[in-house]
């Protein structure tokens, strides 16, 4: 998946994502703006609808008020009320006395219903008993009055297309009883809304009757006043739903909110005319979605068409431009950089555009030339240092050997005094150490000059060979050391150098063993995705964490006691061997219980080799 991280993939992908995101954002903004436009349109239309509904209701209420005032002033109604209140008794009811007067009153009420001002009118006496009524039925007008027969009330039809009254007494009269409607403005009877006006008729301070006028609020009456794009649903308490033309829309939590609502059906808003808690009339005004779905669909199709046009023309052109002026020069530049990284210091001769990429190519060529000059100087310095090291190791070895021989002759002489013998011992000791240091420097320089032969190496075979050497075998037996070697992986390294490496590490573990413990060395391996990890653990004296790096320094020793021989070169040579194969050695853990060294072997086979 390396190509996913390359600029050759990222740049076209960036163009694709940017253009696609821009188009999607534009489509969203256009669509959102279209919804906002229709929301504003719906708001304006619904505000206009509310105003028209209020105007219609106010006009109907005014007409009812005027008609009620006119009826109350009729002398015939006053006379009928006085007659009924003063003389009517159910047990001795005289039809020929009361019925003609009630009939006249019913006809007057019917005239008002027929002119369309009211849908129903009821006249009650001061005891709230019905006298006369008139109403508009489903197919005809009807009027009548209340009579008595054998002291039992009976509705007498006065004018209708049928001899049977549509009202039943008293259940159909009860909803219009004054005590039920006297304080109502909007009133529902059998699920039908009415605008109600009730008047108490007084003679002085005494009430002599009640006149109830009602105007049926039909959907036709409301919708004829509304804009053509708005529908009104009237709330019916009995059905617990908003109703429109026989269609029931149950109330939901959304409908209970007075805020704007938007769903797939359109825009909704709940409006209450009048008091919300007493005599209010609640509507759900609806601006249907079909009024803007066509425009929205056309807009979305246009945006989709624009996306397709862009995909067919703009994106290929953008890809070609990016590849022509960015990706191709970048590939040339990366090819040159990779060539330089593998040691070819020749400058890049490709033609680059006169922009930042061209400037970068010039800078890379300049750095390549500088690297080439520095490499030449470093090779010259390295050759001189190698020659100097060779001369020092060979020329210093001879004086140190002569000092050792001279000190031995002094030690063997019988004429030496005690002080002279101490001096001779000191000279011999220091000359021996100097010889070891010179020999160690020689071996370190030889190791540095020798290029490793990189090949797959079986670590278990290398360690078995190291442990089988007579000197190592004898030393292990002398200290009764226990060495455990697990199954180890094959690594890319030099077999002879690895033999030296494990000889140094095992020797280090035996040298710095704890005086009160039986020496124990354990070697095992772990593998990750990039490197092979080999651990070497001992139970020796250990080292402090602050000395972990110092332990690998050239001729660096952490102890000065004569009980631990050495010149401080073993771990330095171990690190040199590991770094020659692009590996490393570190102290993974150390303490009073011992030390754990970690060898890191690279899995990359592209090493410099002496083959």
What does it look like?
By secondary structure, this protein is of the alpha+beta class. The chain has three domains: 51-288, Beta-Lactamase, CATH 3.30.450.20; 345-449; 451-602, Histidine kinase-like ATPase, C-terminal domain (Heat Shock Protein 90, 2-Layer Sandwich), CATH 3.30.565. It is 49% helix and 22% strand. The strands form four sheets. It has a seven-stranded antiparallel β-sheet. Strands 10-9-8-13-12-11 form a six-stranded antiparallel β-sheet. The longest helix has 66 residues, at 7-72. Residues 607-611 have low confidence and may be disordered.
List keywords for this structure.
single chain, 611 residues, alpha+beta, Beta-Lactamase, Heat Shock Protein 90, seven-stranded antiparallel β-sheet, six-stranded antiparallel β-sheet, 12 helices, 22% strand, elongated, disordered C terminus
Can you tell me the residue ranges where pLDDT is under 50 for at least 5 consecutive residues? 607-611
Domain count: the total is: 3
Q: Which fold name fills CATH's third level, the topology of the largest domain? A: Beta-Lactamase
Q: Portion of residues in helices? A: 40-55%
Q: Main β-sheet: number of strands, strand sense, barrel status?
A: 7 strands, antiparallel
**CATH architecture label name of the largest domain:** 2-Layer Sandwich
Rounded to the nearest angstrom, the radius of gyration is: 56 Å
Structural class of the secondary structure composition? alpha+beta
Quote the beta fraction: 15-25%
- End-to-end distance: 33 Å
The total count of strands amounts to 20
Q: What average pLDDT do the residues reach?
A: 77
| Contiguous helical run count | 12
CATH class of the largest domain: Alpha Beta
InterPro entries: BphY/WalK/GraS-like, HAMP_dom, HATPase_C_sf, HATPase_dom, His_kinase_dom
EC number: 2.7.13.3
Protein name: histidine kinase
Keywords: Kinase, Membrane, Phosphoprotein, Transferase, Transmembrane, Transmembrane helix
């Amino acid at each position: 998946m390396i190509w996913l991280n390359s600029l050759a993939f990222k740049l076209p992908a960036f163009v694709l994502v940017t253009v696609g995101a821009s188009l999607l954002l534009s489509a969203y903004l256009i669509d959102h703006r279209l919804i906002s436009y229709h929301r504003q349109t719906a708001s304006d239309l619904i505000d206009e609808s509310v105003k028209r509904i209020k105007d219609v209701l106010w006009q109907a209420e005014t007409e009812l008020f005027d008609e009620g005032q006119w009826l109350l002033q009729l002398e015939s109604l006053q006379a009928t009320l006085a007659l009924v209140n003063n003389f009517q008794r159910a047990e001795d009811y005289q039809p020929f006395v009361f019925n003609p007067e009630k009939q006249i009153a019913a006809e007057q009420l019917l005239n008002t219903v027929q002119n369309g001002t009211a849908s129903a009118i009821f006249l009650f006496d001061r005891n709230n008993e019905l006298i006369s009524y008139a109403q508009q039925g489903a197919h005809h007008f009807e009027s009548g009055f209340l009579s008595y027969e054998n002291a039992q009330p009976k509705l007498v039809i006065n004018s209708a297309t049928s001899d049977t009254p549509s009202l039943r007494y008293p259940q159909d009269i009860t909803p219009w009883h004054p005590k039920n409607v006297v304080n109502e403005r909007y009133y529902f009877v059998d699920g039908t809304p009415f605008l109600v006006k009730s008047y108490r008729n007084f003679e002085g301070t005494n009430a002599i009757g009640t006149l109830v006028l009602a105007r049926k609020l039909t959907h036709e009456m409301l919708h004829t006043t509304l804009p053509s794009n708005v529908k009104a649903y009237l709330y019916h308490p009995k059905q617990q739903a908003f109703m429109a033309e026989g269609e029931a829309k149950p109330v939901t939590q959304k409908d209970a909110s007075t805020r704007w609502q938007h769903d797939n059906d359109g825009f909704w808003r709940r409006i209450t005319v009048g008091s919300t808690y007493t005599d209010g009339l609640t509507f759900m005004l609806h601006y249907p979605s079909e009024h803007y779905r066509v425009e929205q669909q056309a807009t979305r199709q246009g945006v989709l068409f624009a996306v397709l046009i862009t995909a067919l023309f703009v994106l290929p052109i953008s890809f070609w431009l990016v590849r022509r002026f960015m990706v191709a020069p970048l590939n040339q530049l990366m090819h040159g950089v990779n060539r330089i990284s593998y040691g070819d210091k020749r400058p890049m001769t490709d033609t680059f555009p006169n922009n930042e990429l061209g400037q970068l190519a010039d800078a890379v060529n300049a750095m390549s030339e500088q690297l080439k000059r520095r490499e030449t100087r470093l090779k010259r310095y390295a050759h001189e240092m190698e020659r100097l090291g060779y001369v020092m190791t060979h020329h210093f070895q001879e004086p140190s050997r002569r000092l050792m021989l001279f000190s031995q002759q002094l030690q063997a002489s019988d004429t030496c005094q005690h002080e002279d013998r101490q001096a001779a011992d000191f000279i011999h000791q220091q000359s021996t150490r100097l010889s070891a240091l010179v020999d160690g420097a020689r071996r370190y320089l030889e190791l540095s000059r020798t290029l490793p032969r990189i090949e797959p190496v079986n670590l278990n075979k290398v360690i078995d060979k190291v442990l089988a050497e007579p000197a190592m075998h004898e030393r292990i037996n002398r200290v009764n050391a226990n060495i455990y070697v697990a199954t180890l992986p094959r690594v890319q390294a030099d077999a002879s150098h690895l033999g030296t490496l494990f000889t140094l590490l095992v020797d280090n573990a035996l040298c710095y063993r704890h005086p009160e413990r039986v020496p124990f060395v354990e070697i095992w391996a772990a593998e990750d995705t990039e490197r092979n990890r080999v651990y070497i653990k001992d139970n020796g004296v250990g080292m402090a964490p602050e000395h972990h790096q110092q332990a690998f320094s050239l001729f660096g020793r952490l102890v000065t006691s004569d009980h631990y021989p050495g010149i401080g070169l073993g771990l330095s040579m171990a690190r040199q061997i590991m770094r020659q194969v692009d590996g490393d050695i570190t102290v993974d853990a150390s303490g009073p219980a011992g030390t754990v060294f970690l060898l890191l072997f690279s899995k990359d086979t592209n090493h410099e080799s002496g083959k």
